[in-house]
Design goal:
This protein has 461 residues and is α/β, with parallel strands linked by helices. 28% of the residues lie in helices and 23% in strands. The strands form 5 sheets. Strands 1-2-3-4-5-6 form a 6-stranded mixed sheet, with helices on one face. It has a 6-stranded mixed sheet with strand order 7-8-9-10-13-14. β23, α14 and β24 form a beta-alpha-beta unit. α3 packs across α5. It is globular and about 70 Å long. It starts with a strand and ends in a 14-residue tail after the last helix. It comes from Methanobacterium spitsbergense. GO terms for molecular function: metal ion binding; sulfur dioxygenase activity.
Length: 461
């Protein structure tokens, strides 16, 4: 048996390559699918099967892209009508060399969600592992809110039945291979752990300690954010996205060309870290640090206007292309050739963002002229925050600007200053003149031993 996990950073997506005796299957492939070809060639295997555990909502699936290259068949759950591929049902089996893959219908996260058990008949007739998609993660279970608040109870009950009646009875030694890891938006608190087992989850996964009523109530109370790009991903993954065949070519742009595109409302993303962005940046540019693109680009970028990248040395362009292509952004256009230094050396106008340490913030707390904005997720803010701060999640900030006073000094904080830099750039783009980013933010505040508060009195989103 040959097994390899393929991780996509930022969205914490996990896909899997399984093979035996020269035949292979790929589960939940990403759109830049060259990595699966590399694995197949390296192991002298032919990819004959592609499985989707569900209609993914946080990235564009690569099944059609991979099928175009290798000629494999695509299979997914029968709960919804896909415009491509083949439906599978409970009990369907697939022989891959010595491996037997069997379909288990596990609705709850979505109606058509499936899990796939794996047996290696060369070793045993017992189930060796299960690919659980977004049903069961390390330390967490899948979100049940994608069909709206009115369907959360129904979906939560379905997920409970899927997990407790179908997955857990497979046996404590069965390895669980989920579709996401820590940091994914597809679960509330997924543990930072590559693989897990059914037995380990029964012992350590808090939500699995509940009876059915407690489980359902806990899922109903979950408050998770749904970025606007989910709608585009769901459409892509139902109808099948456009083929890209290869990663897009990004044009190296002169300073003059960037100015012209900005005048025509191009979307300009500065992917440098907050410290560099604070020191100087092109006016009306959004700052999302490079590794934050997969998690946050979908909140702010549309799929129509061209996307322009600003960096220092442009050494990460290939990585950026992959991040945005996985999110379905086929409108990536180009980057400032030579990086940001070309802009300021060419006498281009630029802005800066004031930065504070937590030691600068402390003596200013309580001033009527200061408005402390915490842009972390609401649940994180409720657990602990700086007393007097106001909470609006960064993804919702653009729609809640009416709650942020323009006549005050807006000081932005988050976990460490990275999301705060996104928030500061949004405020600047919308006319806020007096904005400061607290570098280190909550992590540094606690490290310094300064007091923290709890509760939700000042959540304003």
């Amino acid at each position: 048996m040959m097994f390899e996990m393929v991780k996509s950073n930022g969205i914490a997506h996990k896909s899997y390559f399984l093979g035996s005796n020269g035949i292979a299957a790929v589960i939940d492939p990403r759109r830049d699918c060259d990595i699966y070809i590399d694995i197949a060639e390296r192991n002298d295997m032919k990819i004959e099967y592609i499985f989707e555990t569900h209609r993914n909502e946080d990235f564009t699936i690569g099944s059609i892209e991979l099928r175009e290259i290798v000629g494999a068949d695509i299979f997914h759950g029968a709960g919804i009508d896909f415009d491509y591929g083949n439906s599978v049902n409970e009990g369907d089996k697939f022989q891959i060399g010595s491996l037997v893959l069997e379909i288990i219908e596990t609705p709850g996260h979505t109606d058509e969600s499936i899990s796939i058990t794996v047996k290696d008949r060369d070793v045993s007739d017992d189930v060796y592992m299960i690919l659980t998609g977004d049903s069961l993660f390390a330390g967490e279970t899948g979100r049940c809110d994608l069909y709206g608040e009115e369907n959360k109870r129904k979906m939560s009950e379905a997920l409970y039945n899927s997990i407790f009646k179908k997955i857990l009875p497979l046996g404590d030694n069965v390895i669980i291979c989920p579709a996401h890891g820590s940091g994914s938006i597809c679960g509330a608190e997924i543990r930072e752990q590559e693989l897990t087992t059914i037995g380990y989850e029964k012992k350590t996964n808090k939500i699995l300690k509940y009876d059915k009523k407690g489980f359902v109530n806990a899922k109903i109370k979950e408050k998770l954010y749904k970025p606007p790009y989910f709608q585009k991903m769901e459409k892509n993954n139902l109808e099948g996205p456009d083929l890209i065949c290869k990663l897009p070519y990004l044009k190296p742009l002169s300073m003059h060309e960037v100015k012209e595109l900005m005048a025509r409302e191009a979307q300009v993303i500065d992917v440098r870290d907050p410290t560099a962005f604070s020191g100087g940046h092109i006016p009306n540019t959004l700052n999302i640090w490079n590794d934050g693109l997969p998690a946050y680009a979908g909140w702010f970028l549309n799929y129509e206007q061209p996307v322009i990248i600003i960096d220092d040395d442009n050494s990460r362009i290939d990585e950026i292309k992959r991040y945005l292509t996985r999110l379905g952004y086929d409108n990536i256009y180009g980057y400032l050739s030579g990086g940001f230094k070309v802009w300021f050396e060419g006498s281009g106008d630029f802005e800066s963002v004031q930065t504070w340490s937590v030691h600068d913030l402390l003596p200013n707390m309580g001033k009527k002229s200061l408005f402390l904005l915490d842009v972390r997720k609401e649940n994180d803010w409720i657990k602990e925050h700086i007393d007097g701060s106001h909470n609006v999640y960064v993804g919702l900030l653009k729609d809640n600007l009416d709650k942020i006073p323009q006549d005050k000094h807006v000081v932005v904080s988050c976990d460490t200053g990275y999301k705060a830099s996104i928030g500061a750039s949004i405020l600047q783009m919308n006319g806020y003149k007096n904005v400061t980013n607290v570098l280190g933010s909550m992590a540094a505040w606690k490290k310094a031993g300064y007091p923290v508060a709890m509760g939700n009195l000042n959540n304003i989103s």
